[in-house]
Amino acid sequence: RTFTTYGSIKPHISKLFPLSVHFCDKLDKIIAYCHFYAPWCGYCKKLEPVWYDVGAELKSSGSPVRVGKMDGTAYSGMSSEFGVRGYPTIKLLKGDLAYNYKGPRTKDDIVEFANRVAGPAVRALPSKQMFDHMMKRHDVLFVYFGGESPLKEKYIDMAAELIVYTYFFSASEDVLPESVTLPELPSVVVFKDGAYFTYDEYVDGGLSSWVNKERFQSYLQIDGFTLYELGETGTVYILYSTNLLTSTTLIQRVAKEYREHFNRDFQFGHMDGNDYINSLIMGEVSVPSIIILNTSNEQYFLPSEPVETLEQLVHFINSVLDGSAQAQGGDGMFQRVKRVAFDAKSTIMSVFRSSPVLGCFLFGLPLGVISLMCYGICTAESDDGQEDMELMKRDDEEEEDDEEDEPRQAPGELEVLQRRKEGNKPHFS
């Protein structure tokens, strides 16, 4: 078994190191960044040049991460050991932990993930300058303030799990600006949206769930990947608009002014275009629109009347929370069947739009063959039935002809035959 390592920008200089049965024992000494691929996978082939650039970038920056790839079909046992379920799969192997990369497949995002996960789970901020630098660099910043405590142990354990999503830092209270006042020490604080919020165990529940919720800005530019990440956080309502400045401004105001009321249940944002919404509701919605999506069961809510004021928007949100708003969609059996039919229709329409000739060949040829087969079966049954009827009719006619052709015996001949029979009878005296 071999683990391909990119040792230079030029591919012919790249070197190999063995992935033997002792490979797992080496993971406490190295950090391996592995791309599990299949030779037949088109997405894997598309990722190949990006993955090579990742290896070159990490190599040139002096990173300890060793970048490589493995044919998951050739070494299925090793792939199964690391929990590979599909291709391509990117994993960073660090000690006895395997971190899955599920972000965009771009060089910068993949390199950033490696640099974040390969380092310590919690990074120290020893000075005000370093703290200010990180505040400018990160839109969302988690910092633990204080000394050793049970809360710090929970923070470190949580950071080791959620480092795949964001950075985690620790600092002393001295690095804080004068405008920031903590209610107590130790504390876990998140800095975002020009403000800061402190974790309260009694109000916010578990630390991991609080971080998982707060790692997003209060108002987002939403796309397909963001929706996927939000769905992983659990049950959450997403309120977003599609391309209308008035609606966007209203939602931004609600996200800021009503944070204490809706932050626990809602994520706010906007999405460009209406393609995703059309796919979600399996229909057409006008642009602009306001929609609330429940990521846990794929239900969605549309306002019954136009939303033009802040009060109307708040009323709409409250109606969803109290159950008075009508839910649509969902993940029931009927919706699943409807989804399959909608996806099939969308696929066929997209093929015909992009290449009408190819669409006619892919769908017209099979339909033509099936039509010919059905026609052949139907005509064959009809011919067989007609032949049987003709045979039966022919047999009936032959029987009638045989009856008519039988010779008729005259009365005189019958008397002669009768006498002969009587003469042949024995006489007893």
What keyword list fits this structure?
single chain, 429 residues, alpha/beta, 6-stranded mixed beta sheet, 5-stranded mixed beta sheet, 16 helices, 17 strands, 48% helix, 18% strand, extended, disordered N terminus, transmembrane helix, protein disulfide-isomerase, transmembrane
What does this structure look like?
- The strands form four sheets. A six-stranded mixed beta sheet has the order 12-14-13-15-16-17, with helices on one face. It has a five-stranded mixed beta sheet with strand order 7-9-8-10-11, sandwiched between helices. The chain has a four-stranded mixed beta sheet with strand order 4-3-5-6, covered by helices on one side.
- The model is unreliable at 1-22 (pLDDT under 50).
- The longest helix has 50 residues, at 356-405.
- It has 429 residues and is an alpha/beta fold.
- It has helices spanning 23-26, 42-60, 76-81, 107-118, 128-137, 150-162, 201-204, 207-214, 224-232, 245-257, 259-262, 275-281, 310-321, 333-354, 356-405, 411-423; strands spanning 2-5, 15-18, 31-37, 65-71, 89-94, 97-101, 123-124, 141-145, 168-171, 187-192, 195-198, 219-221, 237-241, 266-270, 290-294, 299-301, 328-329.
- The termini are far apart.
- Helix 14 packs across helix 15.
Question: Major sheet: size, sense and barrel closure?
Answer: 6 strands, mixed
Biggest sheet, spatial arrangement of strands: 12-14-13-15-16-17
Decide which structural class fits the backbone.
alpha/beta
> Globular, elongated, flat, extended or rod-shaped: what is the shape?
extended
Radius of gyration: 39 Å
Distance between the termini: 121 Å
Counting DSSP E segments of at least 2 residues, the number of strands comes to: 17
Q: Averaging pLDDT over every residue, what do you get?
A: 77
Query: Which residues sit in consecutive blocks of at least 5 with pLDDT less than 50?
Result: 1-22
Kindly estimate the percentage of residues that lie in beta strands according to DSSP.
15-25%
**How much helicity do the residues have?**
40-55%
Q: Figure out the total of helices.
A: 16
